[in-house]
Design brief:
Layout: H1 2-12, H2 20-41, H3 55-63, H4 69-80, H5 91-96
């Protein structure tokens, strides 16, 4: 969803006062916050196999970013998730995180 927002913002020029890095980091923060919220609200979490959210792709998107904030966001996913270490989580997602 956040990737769609970024694409829309860039294609329409909605945000002219912010640069690309600011918009991208805002969307990444929203993505991480939404994933953590979903993980705490859903009984099986966001990291499980068959989840509606592709967390492996989300983590890959985070890792592709430059700067210190990406490490902070990855740590937020690692240490505030409720279900990351559950047995239903795929090995690929665990390795990506």
């Amino acid at each position: 969803m956040c990737q769609c927002i970024v694409a829309h913002v860039h294609s329409t020029g909605c945000v002219q006062s912010a640069n690309d890095a600011e918009v991208n980091m805002f969307c990444l923060r929203c993505m991480v916050g939404t994933a953590i919220l979903y993980d705490h609200m859903h009984p099986q979490g966001v990291f499980r196999k068959g989840s509606d959210v592709n967390m492996k792709q989300c983590i890959g998107t985070l890792k592709a970013q430059e700067g210190e904030e990406k490490n902070a966001l990855l740590n937020v996913l690692r240490f505030t998730s409720a279900h990351l270490n559950d047995p239903e989580v795929s090995c690929g997602t665990l390795q990506a995180a």
